[in-house]
Every structure is written in structure tokens, then in C-alpha cells.
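re: ur question from the group chat, yeah i did fold both. here u go
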Amino acid sequence: MTLPFAPPVAPMLAKLADAVPSGDGWIYEPKWDGFRAIVFADGESMHIQSRDLKPLGRYFPELEDGLRRVLSRPLVLDGEVVIMTGHGLDFDALSQRIHPAESRVRKLAAETPSSFVAFDLLADGGRDLRAAPFAERRAGLEAALRDVDAPAYLTPMTRDRDEALDWFERFEGAGLDGVVAKRADGVYQPGARAMLKIKHLRTVDCVVGGFRWNRGEEGRSVGSLLLGLYDGDRVLHHVGHTSSFKAAEKQALVATLKPYVTDDESAGFGQGRTPGGPSRWTGDRSMDWMRLRPELVCEVTFDHLQGERFRHAATFRRWRPDKPPRECTFDQIATTVPFLLEEIFAG
């Protein structure tokens, strides 16, 4: 490749912040909900690198072909691989692409083609821009992608905090999950958490329908609580887990949960979606769990609901002995107002 440096390059990361920062020198962008990727293109060759430094292109052949077509000059771009639909971003469809069968990948590529949203420029032609301030890199990115066509897109940006706050609220309806804040004078720092991310966090009361032991400490330490919500038919479904406890707290949970342990397979997750067993994501790792009577309620925070499951582990906040388990329903989670992705790029 005729570029100033070769892959892999560790992407610059973001640390979680409680609020959108204020003051001079900040540049704000929407936070995309996809797979982080760095694209190396020299007009002929194409390499898409994942966040963990591995080749990503085999899972997105249509994106490799499309980017090769629209990126005519040597560039190294940092951004996000996403799947855009009429109702917003679809992370479920994106996740299905990580499949070992090429025939399956090709079928999904035709049915749900992917796109690449660029938000940083690491090299332009023979120039390595990683030591340049972000404001300069952003200007170069806008020039490089001024007339670019799909499947490449340029993420919006603003220096106006009020506009960023507006994005934070409205863009969620298109599947975006927050705002990223970058210093205008910041250089690109591979592997460092040198940006801020402000994500949507919600609170919900869940039934504790089971738990898993800490591996190697069975009977002495709880690894995670398994969380459930009732649907409209009063069936309890597993929606995720929380493991945000200190070592001493995990040991104390053994006594807390012991009175609720049951062998009754109709209790708790007996009728609805269960925590399940090993899969291609977990390999041979044991996913055995202990069933509890659905009587304990806890309050947790989560960032994103993917389908009817928490995308990431929830954070335990407190027990809710005052909350009847049957009131722990999906209705607690507000539905976001739809927002068209076309309007985001038009803005």
C-alpha cells in the first residue's frame, strides 16, 4: 500500500463522561452504534481493520467493494461500520455478519448492505496526520470526502454545545447512542482514552430470576445476577445481567440469594426466554445458572436495549423490596421518537 504507515493501528478510544463538556476548544459528534473500524485505502488496495486490530473486510465484502469504488485517493480513515435501515441503525443485523460461513456472509451482504461513517483522518496521500490537531484533521476529512458517495459517509460535527445536546436527545430515535466530545487541539493517540463519550443511561427495575457463580468459587461467590422483565402476557423474559459488585459483596450475595433458590423449572424464567447455554459467542464456556423464585427486585442502569435484551451488562444500583415483581415490565422503558438518518447527514 502506498500509505505513510501500514495496518494495524490501535484506534484512539473514549472514556465515559457524565455530561457533555462545556467551554472552548471542544468539537462534538454523534456517537454511532456500530463496529469501530480503520480503513486503509490507496486507490487500489483496501484493508478494513477492526478495533481489536484484526481484518474485518471478510465479513463486509460489499463494503470493501464499495469503498474501493468511491475512495479514489490514498487515505486512512477512522470511523464506524454500520447498517442503516428505514427505521435507523440495526446493530442486530451488524452482529449477524460475524459468521464463519462465507455463503452466509454473502447472503446477508446482499440483504442488509453496510456503510462506513468516517469521523477522523489519519493519513492523506503520503502525509501522516496523527500528530496534527484534530481541527486540522477534521478539515482535511471534510475536503477528502466532500463529494464522496455511499457507502462512505462523513459524520456531522459541531462546536456548539447546545446543538450537541439537541443531537443527544433527538438522534437516539435513529439508533445513535450519545455524543462524542474531542479536543480541537488534540493529536491522535492510538490506544489511549483521549476522547469523551456521553451515552444514554436509563434506570429500570428488574426481577432477579437467577444467578451464576464466580468460576472456580462455586458456593462461595456470586458472579452475576440474571435480570428479567415481564411482557404483556405476564411472562418473565431474561434481558441481561449485572456483575457490578465488589468481591466482598459477591460473597455476601450467597446468603442473600440462598432462600430463593428453587428447582421448580416453571419458576422465574421457566416460561419465557432463558439465559441459555454455550453459543458461538461463548464457545465451550459453561453458562450454567441457578434458578431463583421471582421475588427479588433490583434497580439497575443500562445504556441500550437491543431488541428485548440489554446490549451490555447493567449496573446494579440498589435492591427494591418495595417494588412488586409483577410491576417489572417492559413498559418501564420509554420508546424513542423515530428520527431519519437522512436528516442527520443533511444537517
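okk and heres the other one u asked abt
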Amino acid sequence: MEGPGNGAVQAWLDKNELAELVARVSSAVDRGDRERIIACYTEDSYDDHGAFKGSGREFADFICGPGSMSALHHLLGQSVFDVQGDEAWGETFFTFHGALGAADVTGYGRYVDYFRKTDGGWKLRYRRVVPDAVPAGDDRGAYWPASRDRTDPSYDHLRWPDVEPST
């Protein structure tokens, strides 16, 4: 039965599922759970994490492989989602702390995501990390630059593969 509130209810359900997905992938990364990370991404996904660029599956291998951080902790802030049918865009603020060897690393910024709804629900198709503070030792030039105007990546609603990734 269609009613005037059904669209608003569906939008709320979609946004809740997207927030859960963003939290689930962060939890899986913090725990080094390769299968849970992969399950959050579409098969044809792309993740641009600055120094790492590749598919969601390759990102899971990178996070869980040798030389990865021995400890990792994400704290997620607010998310803003724009749902358009089976597509959605989102911006989620984050802070992370971790250990890489004997060094403590920290950073904060935003995940700028493009999502696609599949038979199994929402999944990440394209993620860009837009740091507001780059961890010590990281190359700021490897990331999409943040800006305090409408040129910021959160406004462009890019889809994968319709984008040239930053290099």
C-alpha cells in the first residue's frame, strides 16, 4: 500500500542500512577480518585510501596482510547520505588511531562513498578517503584534497568506474 509517508520511511531505512554498512566495514578493518571487509564491497568496487588504491577485495588483502597495522581503532562521527533509488552517496567523518610497528599513528578526515543497492542490500562501490589530517609519514599528495568550499570531493557525487582515480 502506497502512502505519503512510505517514501520517507524507505529513505530512513536506506540511510540506517548505509550507516550500519559504514560501521560494519570499519569494525571489520579494526579486527582485520578479511571476509567481513570483502562482504561490504561490490565485486567491481574501487577503494582509494591514499597510499592504497584497488578493489575492495585487494583492500582487504592489504589491511590483513603482512606489514599491516598491529592495532587499529576507528571512531566514526556523523554521516550524511543522499539516496537516489538504488544509488547513494555519503560522507562520514572519522578519526583513527593505530600502531605500525613501534610507531603510533593517528589521522582524521572523511570517507566520501558511493554505494549501490544489490539483491543483498547496500554495498560500497567506490570509497575515497579525504583526510583533514594526514598521518605522519603519509604522502598528502596521494589523497583527494579536502577544501572548505564546493570543490570538496563530498559535493561531486562521483561514481565508479566513471571517474579517474587520483594518482
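fwiw on the second one: Residues 6-31 form the longest helix (26 residues). DSSP finds three helices and six strands in the chain. idk if thats what u expected
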